Amino acid sequence: MKKGIWVGLVILLVSSPAMAAPVCLERAQILRVLEESHGERVEYVGVVGTGEALMELLISESGSWSIMFTPPIGVSCIMAVGTGWQKKRNMKGSGI
Q: How far is 80 from 20, CA to CA, in rounded Å?
């Protein structure tokens, strides 16, 4: 499959409210597409298990977000996307 088709597929799935399956590409490609199409950048990174993979949370200023999973083979997959990302605020009396 041509690179342009993959990029189009990523944009389509990342912009849809519900993803049916993960979209996987080279990490650099996914980062570029998410930056250009949604303004998302890596904000949080964590190691899964004892180094089995890297989990990254990309967030835009408008509140869109994506979770990206990258195993050692180097191909990254978008596992979830959404909107309305907010930093947690302590709301007095709410228990949150």
A: 10
